């Protein structure tokens, strides 16, 4: 007879799991500062709390918006962008990528259904490149931390990157580079899962109890998620501003030219956390001497190469398409940084 019971996790495993949570790290930061540098304890706490309070109106609006989109079923509207002529699909996919009301784990079945139904790879790539860069909560959090010019610049860069990537993949496909781009997928149910084109958005969702329930659940979950990560972000920003010498940051990613922008893009790929933690940290780096162009390149390269974004692409397409996704993302990040730095 097989013992089906699972061994209880060890003390070290439980400790690692507890220490890995954002809340634990957020609370440990002031404790460590109080023990090692007591005079700066009040500075760290005041900076983080004031920054979080200042962001709360943006959080409230973002959470309300994303919960409303989910309750209304806006995914069906976004799926309509993948119908019609290919050029139209690329343009709409790049534009709607920033409106997608679902997380990276939900993008995988959504895109899998689109590809199974024959959506062209070029339009899917446009969506893939633009969707990690901006969405309603990220736009508002970026505006709160870095100002509206930076947030709008990032939104424009997201659409431009989606368009450029989509049309580049279209040209490569016509040249015969991506004749068989998809990985073999295990059949599930009828073979392709739910049809993403089914259903229509119901904007008066408050009239239906089930949709009101979805709204409430999404509101609570997204509010908890945003506050959790932003509390950590502002705690880390307070450490950055207090302890990292401005001369160090300015020497690496400050100043004019393409070199600091390229360095920021390459550093942003492995160092990026998520779209909610990055803006406050970049605000601290800019305060310490990072150029605006380098900050934009860091954020865009990090968004494209974040683990959830890459997982969504890697799980569905072969290596050549994945390499094209990364290459287009990094190249687009550098170009966006150069353009934004020249304009600001």
TrEMBL record:
Recorded topology in the membrane: Multi-pass membrane protein
Keywords noted in UniProt: Cell membrane, Membrane, Transmembrane, Transmembrane helix
GO cellular component: plasma membrane
InterPro entries linked to this entry: DUF318 (IPR005524), UPF0718 (IPR052923)
Major site of localization recorded for this protein: membrane
Positions of transmembrane segments: 18-36, 42-69, 90-119, 219-236, 248-273, 294-316, 322-343
Entry's localization field: Cell membrane
Pfam families: ArsP_1
Keyword Zinc: no
Family: Belongs to the UPF0718 family.
Protein name (database record): Permease
Lineage of source species: Bacteria, Pseudomonadati, Pseudomonadota, Alphaproteobacteria, Rhodobacterales
């Amino acid at each position: 007879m097989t013992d089906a019971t699972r061994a209880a996790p060890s003390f070290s495993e439980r400790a690692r799991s507890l220490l890995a949570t954002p809340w634990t790290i957020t609370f440990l930061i002031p404790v460590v500062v109080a023990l090692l540098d007591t005079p700066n304890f009040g500075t760290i706490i005041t900076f983080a709390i004031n920054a979080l309070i200042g962001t709360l109106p943006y959080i409230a609006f973002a959470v309300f918006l994303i919960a409303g989109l989910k309750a209304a079923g806006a995914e069906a509207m976004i799926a309509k962008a993948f119908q019609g002529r290919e050029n139209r699909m690329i343009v709409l996919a790049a534009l709607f990528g920033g409106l997608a009301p679902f997380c990276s784990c939900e993008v995988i079945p959504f895109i899998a259904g689109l590809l199974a139904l024959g959506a062209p790879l070029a339009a899917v790539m446009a969506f893939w490149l633009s969707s990690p860069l901006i969405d309603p909560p990220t736009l508002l959090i970026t505006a709160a931390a870095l100002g509206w010019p930076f947030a709008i610049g990032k939104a424009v860069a997201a659409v431009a990157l989606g368009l450029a990537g989509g049309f580049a993949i279209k040209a490569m496909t016509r040249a015969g580079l991506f004749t068989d781009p998809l990985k073999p997928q295990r059949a599930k149910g009828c073979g392709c899962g739910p049809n993403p084109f089914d259903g229509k958005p119901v904007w008066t969702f408050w009239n239906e109890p089930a949709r009101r329930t979805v709204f409430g659940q999404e509101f609570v979950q997204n509010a908890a998620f945003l506050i959790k990560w932003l509390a950590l972000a502002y705690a880390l920003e307070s450490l950055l501003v207090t302890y990292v010498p401005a001369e160090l940051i300015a020497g690496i990613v400050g100043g004019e030219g393409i070199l600091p922008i390229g360095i920021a893009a390459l550093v942003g790929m492995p160092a990026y956390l998520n779209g909610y933690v990055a803006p406050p940290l970049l605000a601290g780096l800019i305060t310490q001497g990072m150029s605006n162009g380098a900050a934009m390149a860091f954020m865009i390269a990090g968004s494209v190469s974040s683990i959830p974004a890459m997982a969504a692409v890697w799980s569905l397409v072969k290596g050549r398409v994945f390499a094209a996704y990364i290459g287009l993302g990094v190249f687009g990040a550098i170009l966006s940084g150069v353009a934004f730095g020249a304009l600001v």
